[in-house]
């Protein structure tokens, strides 16, 4: 069924494409691809071509009203074609200068390159000298005879006749192409040809319809003439250029197309020629036929689609019914498979459903519990007593539901166990609860484990406090040691009892110092003593110091390091580097996150990566983070020395440190350090 719909949609798409293509042919005489191409803006290459030839020069007929006429007294050149050329200039975005002249001279000027453009009706003869654009307007040719002449009634009656015509006019070529042998008398314009006809020097005059009609309307003896009913040609006019400049045509075609699309041609036609339609073939009937055919086809397709749709809906309903049955069974299995206790109560305060875990706890069969009052279940009864009848209120009072928060958790003790209860109103209908779902979790063991964890954290905190106290104790112990040293000089050979007391004090100070040394193992920088150190063990040892901070902030720690990487290094320096980087990562993840530490080896170097997904470092400050006393933390929250110390220690062990970070996406500190002396490496 889906395949049929796909096929139909493809057919509709193809039909629409064909319709649009045909419509564009009727409206603009172009297909879809041509429409897209002509609608596009001028390319940089096309603009270069226009700049190459500008200003363009248009050579037009000096005396061919209303198409174009030049008034010598005010130096004005106006007319239908003149306005079209001006509109073309606007579309092209370049200046087109009009140069009016006698028609045959205009043709010669275009041929010799004195002008760039000229409007004309294309023909095979003219095509030898000129290249043509898309049509810009239409023209019909008319035959004019004396009203008393009954011999000439159509084009072929001109055979053997004398015809007055404007020099270079398309009519000469067209009549000759029809095999008509006529004697042409050429004039500079149509007005002169009509004057020859008036004086009976020619039998007929031929020319462009708007020009002939214009002059006849101007003549006081117009009734002496008769225009033959049928035009002898109806053809398009184009913009012609010389063959050497035919690269202009593609650009001119775009401009002409945009003029047609905007209706510019039609507006200019209405200005100069009124509502006449001779410049454009009437294609309204063809459009009507096209739209009617499209409508009928669409009606048929839509009708068949409705049939298929109804049929598919029926099949879909059957399919969905089966799926719902399967989903119901799956939900029932899930409902019964959950370890939490689940029970559904109705508005009648009776049990509508209960899962297997709850039944196992109650040690009852499902059939005996269903449709029984929820108050028969001791756990729910205890809950109602402790919460002022909340279940009863939710099922019987609609306004209670409005202010109820389903995210709230309730705790209740029953039969020596601790339970957490959540209530979810179901199927609200106009503030009326149809059912409620109660979820009950036994959290007894969880709460016990939480208490154990709290105790463990307290012990860790006490350990950290002891380490802090150890720092404070070292100074007084030093004073005691110095004092006993002074007393030795005084009593060593004189008083045996006091000497023994001083030795006891010394031994106690040594013992206290060893304890303090252990407590300060991770906070003391030692001298430059290098030793072979297992990298993974060192990382784990340092990371263990921050377990409490990591847990408190919800930060997960993962260490990815090869087991057998051994490095010859001052381990205390490396510890302090890692401690500062881990502390920095923890501070960047106040809302929790993930901390990953990688250790790997390559060539004679070790790479350590400390990666977090915290707030990250802004790009504008990333170059300053290793500067001493530079910090972005609030006053009192940081000294700005942590990363500086890490950087300094890395430099001391001949390593390199860099940071990769993006704002709000975390930071990764990368440390490269050498294995150690090559001679020592070879010995080991």
From TrEMBL:
GO terms of molecular function: ATP binding; phosphorelay sensor kinase activity
Domain Histidine kinase, residue spans: 468-677
Pfam families per UniProt: HATPase_c, HisKA, SBP_bac_3
The EC number(s) this enzyme carries: 2.7.13.3
Keyword Transmembrane belongs to the record: yes
Record PROSITE patterns: HIS_KIN
Protein name, as recorded: histidine kinase
Provenance organism: Paramaledivibacter caminithermalis (strain DSM 15212 / CIP 107654 / DViRD3)
Lineage per the UniProt record: Bacteria, Bacillati, Bacillota, Clostridia, Peptostreptococcales
């Amino acid at each position: 069924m889906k395949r049929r719909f796909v096929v139909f949609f493809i057919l509709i798409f193809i039909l629409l494409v064909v319709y649009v293509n045909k419509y564009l042919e009727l409206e603009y005489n172009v297909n879809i691809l041509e429409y897209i191409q002509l609608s596009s803006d001028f390319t940089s290459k096309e603009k270069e071509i226009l700049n190459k030839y500008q200003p363009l020069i248009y050579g037009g007929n000096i005396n061919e009203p209303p198409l174009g006429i030049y008034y010598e007294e005010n130096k004005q050149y106006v007319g239908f074609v003149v306005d079209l050329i001006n509109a073309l200039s606007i579309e092209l975005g370049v200046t087109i200068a009009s140069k009016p002249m006698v028609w045959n001279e205009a043709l010669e000027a275009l041929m010799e390159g004195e002008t760039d453009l000229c409007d004309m009706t294309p023909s095979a003869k003219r095509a030898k000298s000129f290249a043509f654009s898309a049509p810009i307007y239409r023209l019909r040719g008319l035959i004019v005879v004396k009203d008393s002449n009954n011999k000439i009634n159509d084009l072929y009656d001109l055979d053997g006749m004398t015809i007055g015509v404007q020099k270079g006019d398309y009519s000469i070529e067209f009549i000759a192409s029809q095999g008509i042998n006529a004697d042409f008398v050429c004039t500079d314009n149509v007005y002169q040809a009509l004057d020859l006809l008036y004086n009976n020097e020619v039998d007929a005059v031929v020319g462009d319809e708007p020009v002939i009609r214009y002059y006849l309307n101007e003549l006081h003896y117009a009734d002496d003439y008769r225009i033959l009913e049928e035009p002898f040609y109806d053809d398009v006019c184009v913009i012609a250029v010389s063959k050497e400049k035919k690269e202009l045509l593609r650009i001119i075609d775009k401009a002409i197309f945009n003029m047609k699309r905007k209706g510019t041609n039609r507006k200019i036609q209405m200005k100069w020629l009124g509502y006449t339609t001779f410049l454009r073939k009437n294609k309204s009937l063809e459009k009507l036929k096209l739209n009617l055919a499209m409508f009928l086809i669409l009606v048929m397709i839509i009708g068949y689609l409705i049939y298929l749709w109804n049929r598919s809906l029926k099949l879909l309903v059957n399919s969905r019914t089966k799926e719902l049955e399967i989903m119901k069974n799956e939900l029932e299995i899930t409902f019964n498979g959950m370890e939490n206790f689940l029970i559904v109560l109705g508005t009648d305060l009776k049990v509508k459903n209960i899962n297997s875990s709850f039944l196992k706890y109650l040690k009852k069969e499902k059939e005996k519990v269903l449709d029984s009052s929820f108050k028969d279940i001791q756990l729910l009864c205890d809950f109602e007593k402790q919460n002022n009848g909340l279940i009863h209120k939710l099922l019987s009072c609609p306004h209670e539901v409005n202010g109820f928060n389903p995210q709230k958790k309730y705790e209740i003790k029953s039969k020596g166990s601790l339970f957490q209860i959540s209530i979810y109103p179901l199927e609200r209908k106009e503030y009326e609860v149809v059912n409620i779902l109660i979820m009950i979790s036994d959290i007894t063991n969880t709460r016990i484990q939480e208490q154990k964890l709290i105790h463990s954290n307290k012990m860790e905190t006490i350990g950290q406090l002891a380490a802090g106290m150890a720092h404070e104790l070292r100074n007084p112990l030093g004073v005691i040691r110095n004092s006993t040293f002074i007393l030795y000089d005084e009593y060593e050979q004189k008083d045996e009892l006091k000497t023994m007391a001083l030795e006891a004090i010394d031994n106690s100070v040594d013992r206290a110092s060893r304890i303090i040394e252990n407590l300060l193992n991770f906070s003391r920088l030692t001298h430059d003593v290098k030793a072979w150190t297992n990298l993974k063990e060192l990382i784990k040892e340092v990371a263990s110091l921050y377990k409490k901070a990591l847990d408190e902030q919800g930060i997960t720690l993962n260490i990815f390091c090869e087991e057998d990487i051994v490095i010859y290094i001052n381990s205390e320096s490396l510890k302090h580097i890692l401690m500062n980087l881990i502390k920095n990562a923890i501070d960047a993840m106040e809302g929790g996150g993930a901390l990953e530490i990688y250790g790997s080896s390559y060539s004679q170097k070790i790479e350590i990566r400390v990666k977090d997904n915290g707030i990250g470092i802004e790009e504008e400050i990333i170059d300053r983070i290793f500067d001493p006393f530079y910090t972005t933390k609030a006053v009192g929250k940081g000294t700005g020395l942590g990363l500086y110390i890490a950087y300094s220690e890395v430099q001391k062990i001949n390593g390199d440190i860099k940071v990769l970070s993006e704002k709000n996406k975390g930071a990764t500190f990368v440390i490269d350090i050498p294995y150690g002396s090559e001679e020592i490496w070879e010995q080991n």
